[in-house]
């Protein structure tokens, strides 16, 4: 019957063409102008010869309107199918292929990766098993799975939430894979599921959080039965206190039998170990911060905390570098990584809540010894000028004012009546310079950098958010030595010899990646989940954006 219809259709087309030629000859004989040629419509022929391809083409054309395809992916998915002659990808002989069924099962478990399985529309698994589906239904299911594969890959690679939507202090530029590339790689792979899951971050830190997420969910029904430590006065080594047995129980160390209330060496050592793991000063004293950490007061749901940190890993560069610097704001710590291992660590001071250190990645290009401090306009406007106008001076600062379109040095006492927008202030090198003896520059749109500081006492604090946004380094010369350990250009010791002269710049031949991060949870080298305070509230905002709170 089908062949007979095709013969009739072709016959009609041939007859139409012959008749058209005869009509054209008559028109030319009368001297009339012929219109342009009209291409014959083969759509009916295509539909009859391959109704499945026609159904896929129609499904692609109406996919966005029908809610099957996302608008941002529709063009690329259409291009992918066009290269295949609009043939189905996941359905053969009316049924889902084994690879398609494996992909569906894995996407249904997207929560293992910190994603939301309900975000992906998946086809009916039993299509074609009980009765024959129409071409339109097969096309619908095939396109539905293609969109689900693309959506999973996009979110696994770049995250569910754009960091730009959370604030301007996130400097990551998210680039997601093209839909046609995703479909080509996954459908053409000998391991489609493995290829799809590989769109998640490759860093071992992400994998460790994923494993911890699974562990916590498996142990969700298990309650923490350890006692909470009551409030009380500062507990120091050698003191006796009825809370000591509770502390021992909380830390799961054996109880003392002779003097159970004595805060002895074994209890102090256990507290010091806990303080180190919690990022606190390991002084062995149980004060407000240690007590809160012991009881985990104010701690967020650990599953939620892991999920928001997994999301942040999706914003990070896929390759951090073989040798790089990483500052983790909630940890108040700077690390140098070499070959995936921490090679150097020191404490840092980061921005206050009102002047937060931004989160981004860049490359260190310059080191400056004996730096000038060019005071930011916000500090001039909000701090220095009000002090001048209240009678204080600007001792030790150089002040420039825009006079008739040109900046000129002026007496600091004269700026009290000048518009703040027309003033520039800098502090020359010296012992009192706010940047200390050295700064490390990775030019960026936030104008933040790493630097020394004359205010060393702040590094002894457990919470170290005190700067105007830049990152102060506790041991800048040790950091410089570790940073330049492989450099043939200059060493940290050579840089330090320049201290005391004029401003001295070193332009690094080899740029060094710098990552300013915000991770409140990670799994340490011993496999223990570590968490830190959400100092800027980024966890809370991201959890809300993800629909977790």
Provide a count of the helices: 17
Oligomeric category: single chain
Mean pLDDT: 87
Specify Rg, calculated over alpha carbons: 33 Å
Secondary-structure class: alpha+beta
What topology emerges from the helices and strands here?
Layout: H1 2-29, H2 43-49, H3 51-61, H4 71-83, E1 91-92, E2 95-96, H5 98-107, H6 135-158, H7 179-187, H8 192-197, H9 204-218, H10 244-251, H11 265-277, H12 288-295, H13 302-315, E3 323-328, E4 333-338, E5 341-351, E6 360-369, E7 373-374, H14 377-389, E8 398-403, E9 406-410, E10 423-427, E11 438-441, E12 450-451, E13 465-467, E14 471-473, H15 476-483, H16 492-496, E15 504-517, E16 521-523, E17 529-531, H17 538-545
Parallel strand pairs: 3-15, 5-13, 12-14
Antiparallel strand pairs: 1-2, 3-4, 4-5, 5-14, 6-11, 6-15, 7-10, 8-9, 8-10, 11-12, 16-17
Helix pairs in contact: 2-3, 3-4, 3-6, 4-7, 5-6, 6-7, 9-13, 10-11
List its traits.
single chain; 549 residues; alpha+beta; eight-stranded mixed beta barrel; four-stranded antiparallel beta sheet; 17 helices; 17 strands; disordered N terminus
Walk me through the structure.
- The protein folds into five domains: about 1-40; about 50-200, no CATH class; about 245-295, no CATH class; about 315-370 and about 430-549, L,D-transpeptidase catalytic domain-like; about 375-425, no CATH class.
- The chain is about 35% helix and about 15% strand.
- The chain has helices spanning about 1-30, 45-50, 50-60, 70-85, 100-105, 135-160, 180-185, 190-195, 205-220, 245-250, 265-275, 290-295, 300-315, 375-390, 475-485, 490-495, 540-545; strands at about 90, 95, 325-330, 335-340, 340-350, 360-370, 375, 400-405, 405-410, 425, 440, 450, 465, 470-475, 505-515, 520-525, 530.
- Strands 3-4-5-14-12-11-6-15 form an eight-stranded mixed barrel. The protein has a four-stranded antiparallel sheet with strand order 7-10-8-9, with no helix packed on it. Strands 1-2 form a two-stranded antiparallel ribbon.
- A hairpin with an 8-residue loop joins strand 11 and strand 12.
- Helix 3 packs antiparallel against helix 4 and helix 3 packs across helix 6.
- The two termini are about 60 Å apart.
- Mean pLDDT is about 85; it is low at about 1-45.
């Amino acid at each position: 019957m089908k062949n007979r219809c095709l013969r009739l259709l072709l016959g009609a087309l041939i007859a139409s063409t012959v008749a058209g030629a005869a009509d054209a000859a008559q028109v030319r004989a009368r001297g009339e102008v012929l219109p342009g040629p009209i291409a014959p419509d083969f759509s009916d022929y295509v539909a009859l010869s391959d109704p499945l391809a026609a159904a896929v083409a129609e499904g692609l054309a109406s996919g966005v309107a029908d809610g099957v395809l996302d608008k941002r992916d529709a063009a690329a998915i259409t291009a992918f199918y066009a290269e295949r002659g609009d043939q189905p990808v996941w359905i053969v002989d009316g049924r889902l292929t084994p690879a398609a069924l494996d992909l569906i099962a894995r996407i249904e478990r997207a929560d293992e990766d910190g994603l939301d399985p309900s975000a992906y529309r998946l086809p009916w698994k039993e299509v074609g098993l009980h009765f024959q589906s129409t071409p339109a239904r097969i096309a619908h299911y095939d396109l539905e799975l293609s969109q689900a594969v693309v959506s999973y890959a996009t979110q696994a690679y770049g995250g569910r939430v754009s960091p730009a939507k959370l604030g301007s202090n996130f400097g990551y530029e998210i680039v997601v894979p093209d839909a046609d590339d995703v479909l080509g790689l996954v459908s053409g792979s000998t391991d489609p599921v493995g290829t799809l899951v590989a769109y998640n971050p490759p860093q071992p830190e992400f994998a460790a959080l994923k494993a911890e997420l699974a562990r916590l969910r498996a142990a969700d029904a298990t309650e923490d039965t350890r006692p909470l430590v009551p409030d009380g006065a500062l507990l120091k080594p050698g003191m006796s206190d009825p809370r000591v047995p509770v502390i021992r129980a909380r830390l799961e160390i054996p109880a003392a039998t002779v003097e159970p209330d004595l805060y002895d060496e074994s209890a102090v050592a256990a507290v010091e170990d806990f303080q180190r793991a919690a990022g606190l000063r390991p002084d062995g004293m149980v004060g407000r911060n240690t007590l809160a950490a012991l009881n985990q007061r104010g701690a967020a749901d650990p599953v939620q905390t892991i999920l928001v940190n997994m999301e942040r890993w999706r914003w990070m560069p896929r390759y951090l570098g073989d040798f790089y610097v990483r500052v983790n704001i909630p940890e108040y710590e700077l690390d140098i990584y070499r070959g995936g291992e921490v090679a150097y660590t020191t404490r840092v001071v980061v921005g206050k809540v009102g002047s937060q250190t931004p989160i981004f990645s860049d490359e260190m290009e310059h080191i400056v010894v004996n730096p000038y401090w060019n005071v930011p306009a916000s500090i001039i406007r909000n701090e220095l000028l009000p002090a001048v106008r209240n009678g204080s001076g600007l001792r030790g600062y150089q002040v420039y004012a825009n006079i008739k379109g040109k900046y000129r040095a002026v007496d600091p006492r004269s700026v009290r009546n000048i518009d703040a927008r027309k003033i520039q202030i800098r502090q020359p090198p010296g012992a009192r310079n706010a940047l200390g003896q050295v700064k490390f520059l990775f030019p960026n749109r936030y104008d933040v950098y790493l630097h020394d500081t004359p205010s060393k006492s702040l590094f002894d604090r457990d919470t170290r958010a005190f700067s105007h946004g830049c990152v102060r380094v506790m041991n800048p010369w040790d950091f410089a030595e570790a940073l330049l350990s492989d450099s043939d250009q200059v060493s940290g010791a050579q840089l330090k010899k320049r201290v005391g002269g004029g401003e001295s710049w070193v332009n690094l031949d080899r740029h060094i990646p710098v990552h300013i991060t915000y991770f409140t949870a990670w799994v340490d080298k011993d496999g223990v989940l570590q968490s830190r305070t959400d100092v800027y509230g980024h966890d809370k905002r991201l959890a809300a954006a993800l629909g977790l709170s």
